[in-house]
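Narrative of activities, Objective 1.

The group set out to show that a structural description can be obtained from nothing but a protein's sequence at a throughput compatible with the screening campaign. Below is one input-output pair from the validation batch, recorded exactly as produced.
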Amino acid sequence: MPHLPSDSGAIRLAIDLVQRETVRPGDPAPVRLLATAAVEWLDQRDREWWPFVRLPPLWIEEEAAAALAGGIRELFQGGEPGFAWQAGASFGLQLGLAEGGAVVIEIGVDLGAFLADASGLPPRAGGEAALFRFTSAPADVVRFAGAVETQLQELAELAR
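Output recorded for this entry:
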C-alpha cells in the first residue's frame, strides 16, 4: 500500500488502490478505481499504525491516479515548486518544496458527507474539514509515487 510518511515517522498518508472498475468494451466512460485513504499515526507502544481519519471508499478516475504519480515526478524535475491533486470532492493533497530539501505535505479531508450520513443531518459541503500538514523527505515522496504507479500497473494487468 502506498504510504507517505512524515520525516519524524509519527504520521503518514496511506492510499490503497484496491480494485479497477469493470467496464464493458467500447464504453466511453473513464475507468475508475476503488480506493481507500487514511491519515494515520504510529503508536510507539505497539508499533502499529492507527487512523486519525479513514475515509469511506473513494472512486478515483484511473487517469487522476496516474496524474498523482506524474505530478510528483514533475515536482522533482523542477517544473513547478508545488503540486495539488484532488480525489473527488472529499480528499485533496498538496505538495510543495521547502527550503532545505524537505517536502511540505498538506492533506485536506471534507468530512461533511460522512458526518451527514452518520448523523442524519443535511450535508454541508466544506463545513466539516480536517486539515493535516507535515514535512516528508524527498526519497519517501518518490517511493510513494512509485508505489502508486506499481498499484496502477498491477490493477491494469488484473483487468486483462
